[in-house]
Specification:
The protein has two domains: about 120 residues, Macroglobulin (MG2) domain (Immunoglobulin-like, Sandwich); about 100 residues, Immunoglobulin-like. It is built from two helices and 19 strands.
Length: about 325
């Protein structure tokens, strides 16, 4: 075979090889790419799109891409409230530090991936945003509902703070999105003495009310937390609705202060109030019940120690 003929045959073979490789690439496709699609309405709801015209995703200061589901605690844990930013939204405290005292002002914003303040929220349990503030030793619990200034997108409230590190947990649902729980630390300078390690305690007395808790504390099992309210030894049967339910229960895991989602069962006027939840891991959990009676809201608190390794479903349907 002559040299020109050999050259032509080589070129034809090279072109065929490239064609085969391109076909395989199309068949296999890209790996490990997860992109959230945003509707055209996103721009109208605070410009929550995480992609600019140059096709690149926003990155936060930790190097994670906004708008992309992440692995690690934020995505791999069943307990929300461990991060200050997720899915392109970020909780921004006006200051990471506050003074100790009563009615100390606190302000913050919820920012979208573009850096703008989120203005449109979906009302859940009669409020656009629930703010849970608890000291890191699980004392000093407060559940408040800040006021939104729609001109600036700033939320404002007042807190009673003692020295220590407090966890500020914002529970909200952006309009058109799933619910989010974002959290950050607030530092309060002063003489701080942490409370001793918590032990299992399932009864509490507050303002003349005696409240008891009953629940299966096996980790990893769906359970019903039942709370019974009594006053002067008699069952309270005329509880008023609070936040659209018989009561509002918050559960927080000791250590990382993971925030459990707790769902109220069908309404009851007492004395028993039921909530569905699960203790995802072994550990200590602090539970705070807000209930309303005779025009006043009271908060009872409990400690539940979930022991052992996470269990199987034990016949429950999940």
């Amino acid at each position: 075979m002559s040299t020109p003929v050999r050259l032509v045959a080589f070129l034809i073979g090279l072109v065929a090889a490239f064609a085969v490789a391109a076909g395989i690439g199309r068949a296999v496709g890209p790996l490990d790419v997860v992109v959230e699609e945003h509707s055209a309405d996103d721009a109208a709801h605070g410009d929550t799109s995480a992609t600019h015209g140059d096709g690149h995703e926003d990155e936060d200061e930790d190097g994670h891409e906004e708008g992309v589901h992440q692995s690690g605690p934020a995505a791999g844990s069943t307990v929300p409230g461990l991060v200050s930013r997720q899915d392109g939204f970020a909780l921004r405290l006006a200051s990471p530090e506050a003074r100790a005292g009563r009615q100390v002002p606190l302000s913050f914003t919820v920012e979208t991936s573009s850096g703008r303040s989120l203005l449109d929220y979906q009302t859940v349990h009669e409020r656009d945003l629930h703010l849970i503030v608890v000291r890191r030793d699980l004392t000093g619990f407060q559940h408040v509902h800040p006021t939104l200034d729609r001109r600036t997108g700033t939320w404002s409230t007042a807190l009673d703070l003692t020295p220590g590190t407090w966890r500020v947990i914002a529970d909200f649902t952006p309009q058109g999105w799933d619910g989010l729980t974002l959290a950050d630390d607030l530092f309060v300078p002063g003489d701080f003495r942490p409370e001793p390690e918590l032990a299992d305690r399932r009864t509490d007395s507050v303002a003349g009310y005696d409240v008891s808790l009953s629940a299966d504390a096996a980790p990893g099992v769906d359970t019903v937390v039942s709370l019974t309210v009594q006053r002067e030894g008699r069952p309270v049967t005329d509880l008023s609705p609070y936040l659209g339910a018989s009561g509002h229960l918050v559960a927080i895991r000791s250590g990382d202060l993971g925030y459990l989602h707790v769902h109220p069962e069908e309404g009851s006027s007492g004395p028993r109030i039921d909530f569905a939840t699960s203790f995802p891991t072994a550990g200590v959990y602090r539970l705070f019940l807000d209930f309303k009676h005779r025009g006043a809201v009271h908060t009872a608190d409990f400690t539940v120690v979930a022991g052992g390794a996470p269990q199987e479903a034990h016949g429950h349907d999940h």
